[in-house]
Amino acid sequence: MTGRTIKGTVALVTGANRGIGGAIAEALLERGARKVYATARDPKTVEGLKQRYGSRVVLLQLDVTRADQVAEIARLAPDVELLFNNAGLATMTELSSEAVVDRARSEIEVNYLGPLRLVQRLAPTLARNGGGAVVNVASIAGLANLLMIPTYSASKAALHSLTQAARVLLAAQGTLVCGVYPGPVDTDMSRELQVPKTPACDVAHAILDGVEVGQEEIFPDPFAADFGRRYEASPKAAELYFASMTSSQVA
After folding, report:
1. The pTM is what?
2. Which residues are catalytic?
């Protein structure tokens, strides 16, 4: 499927208050997006973006685990052309922990059911606006489990599977569906990882580059790009490589 031009379009970004989401929102504006709906559970945390870019930024409250708020987003943003499902949650929980099931449930709610809710509600909007694109920010940990965050990895694997299904099911309405698989990115979420990390702004621009050329699987940083080449050649070999690279992080 052909790519989507960023300049002049209307985008919605979940989790736009920090990390990759904040960087995506800023990169969209830098590259000429006409309007960006910047969503967060607390819109006040995105006010800096509004101050810098004025009326091109619309702040909206959105907890992706709240079906009522997702429905309200669909009502308030009828002109969306690009949907960036970025909001994420990661917890470091051992499989033997008493809390593991509850924490896994929370990750599934944010990382999988959240994007599913947004796609369900906004796919008709995208169709009315010419097809547009859905960009799901997953992780290479969804392709090969990162042992220090096994339940997070499982939730991102679910998002990867959803992305594959949505790509086929939304093709008839002209919607491009991109899966994004970052490696270590310099954000609050990855602060415990003692590995080289790519700046979030570089990752955001690489994501937008991928969207503009219609790239369905986007590996937006050097670590991810290397992993992606290995994964394409042999998923099992890539899984073993990833485990060897990250095993030192498991204590």
Report:
1. 0.94
2. 152
